[in-house]
Fold this sequence. Notes:
The structure is a homodimer of 282-residue chains. Chain A is of the alpha/beta class and 282 residues long. Chain A has 2 domains: 3-168, NAD(P)-binding Rossmann-like Domain (Rossmann fold), CATH 3.40.50.720; 172-281, 6-phosphogluconate dehydrogenase C-terminal like domain (6-phosphogluconate dehydrogenase C-terminal fold, Orthogonal Bundle). Chain A is built from 11 helices and 8 strands. Chain A has an 8-stranded mixed sheet, with helices on both faces. In chain A, helix 3 runs parallel beside helix 4 and helix 6 (170-199) crosses helix 9 (235-257). The first copy, chain A, is globular and about 70 Å long. The mean pLDDT of chain A is 96. At the A-B interface, helix 6, helix 7, helix 8, helix 9 and helix 10 of A face helix 6, helix 7, helix 8, helix 9 and helix 10 of B.
Amino acid sequence: MKKLHITGLGLLGGSFALAARQKFHELEISGWDTSEQNLKDAHTLGMIDKAQELPDEDVDLAIIATPADTLASLVSATLDKVGPESLVIDLGSTKSTICKALADHPKRKQFLAGHPIAGTEYSGPRAAFPELLDRKVMILCEMEKTDLHLKEKAYELFDALNLKLRFMEPDEHDKQLAFVSHLSHISSFMLGKTVLQKMEDDKNIFDMAGSGFASTVRLAKSSPSMWAPIFTENKDNILEALDGYIENLQKFRLKIDATSGEDMKSEMAEINSIRDILDLQS
Amino acid sequence: MKKLHITGLGLLGGSFALAARQKFHELEISGWDTSEQNLKDAHTLGMIDKAQELPDEDVDLAIIATPADTLASLVSATLDKVGPESLVIDLGSTKSTICKALADHPKRKQFLAGHPIAGTEYSGPRAAFPELLDRKVMILCEMEKTDLHLKEKAYELFDALNLKLRFMEPDEHDKQLAFVSHLSHISSFMLGKTVLQKMEDDKNIFDMAGSGFASTVRLAKSSPSMWAPIFTENKDNILEALDGYIENLQKFRLKIDATSGEDMKSEMAEINSIRDILDLQS
Lengths: 282, 282
């Protein structure tokens, strides 16, 4: 791999650039970001060698790492620009919309739909670090629609970055992610909001917050420009997850109100089984 | 300080024992736990020198670190046993009930109501570690009701353990903790439940979970025996916090359903202000 282009030099795009740089010493990286400050930072941090909106025609890989609502047009414009030996990859957190939008593109074979399960609550190039992707899961969708030979170029990068590949259909991806990622962000944002509202009465309320609160509210620091489009694109699945969550909260509320200590205990003990599942992963 | 007694040798009691042991080399520690296994583990881990249900009469400090619903009777029994030079401290996560229960005890002056803002999602002596309390906040309630000379003994321990003391009334404590601790546990348990329910359809759903999910659901590993009594004792404040939370979720749900991207963005951007507050603390 000789030439890499990255559109969107934030946490994810920037981390790909830094990690690729470490693994491929001769690599030439071009990149773009609509934020001038991000573009400047990306230069300073050594992420890109040159700033340009679209990749060179002979680019090996072009990675599009921008908010979900901008992906379809950017992937399309990038495909239009590149030559036959280039692969364009998106890293969006929803996969149905982008796959549908690209279905009839004449260069569909040169597109790969991906989603690395990696991130922090911070955003922008200064939040990026090369280890972000190390040993993380990379989901790939509609694999059969991408050219076999071009996929090898993607594998070369993914393997070098220690990404663990998983393959699933876009619909299945969006359903699962609504539950194990998108819902967590909503619960965290609303928890943050509830405590901020309370702070209007109790100025010092945060002094009493411990590590448990910090952990559950961490995602409320996340970028609104990134998350609002995800909530929109994956609306149906997210509403299903959110309705289930609200119903569970309301049922548990009844148990608290009824002072049903034993009921609460047995419900929580069942949920404790999540320990084994989470521990398996780490 | 020569003699310390700890009732309840779990995460918190055990960590107090281990930390006190490091700071006071001549200290004799007695202790008790209703779980035989915990008592055995506490011996093995060097937390206690001898197992006994109640402290010696000449104990300096007796710390009661058991679930909230057992505190009043244990503190009372311990006060009845000890001599005039002993101080009894509870570490419960709710403070109104215990303070009311002890209000008319003839030895009220020998009792100190405390709550260290420290913990993890794990429980039992094997989860304890001496650094758990280091530089954590220790809330003390109804300070004026405790004997001045006996309080000095508590300060000696708290200072040695680098605890940062805060003083508040029990009602205020319980109100604030409902928002910044108890609500987080409920949100986390119910998030865990929602995803476990979904797992019945999608066996592999947890494979797709990233660090964001792990962070928001971490507290769902917590001990039901510890948390059910807290939800009961602090019911009114928790219901207020939970109702505010559910209302916020329902309102945000409407924005998702209406595809109100800009509305969602501006709401999340406001909540992002929690960044500065959380960063101040760490």
